[in-house]
Design a protein that fits this description.
alpha+beta; two-stranded antiparallel sheet; about 100 residues; single chain; about 20% helix
Length: about 100
Amino acid sequence: MIPGGGETVMVALSAADRDPTPFPRPDTFDIRRPSPPHLAFGHGIHYCLGAPLARLQAATALSSLFTRFPALALAPGADRTWRRSLITRGLTRLPVRVGG
């Protein structure tokens, strides 16, 4: 309890993994970046039971995508469009090219 109560607390999920101390260049997407421990699936007794399934689904989807389109790359000169939200951070548009 907060003494006096009535205070509002807002969790900014869009700030997750954005601290430059554990995440070098937090504004740069780097799939090879070593990942420090994070709490995306919770921790301890509150750890998400579905985490292994979510990880398997992501690994399967990405493996299938890159196997089917080995030359997949960002479209040259294309603008990425970011979601405007205080709650989540993500792209609403990411133009790519599938061929070389």
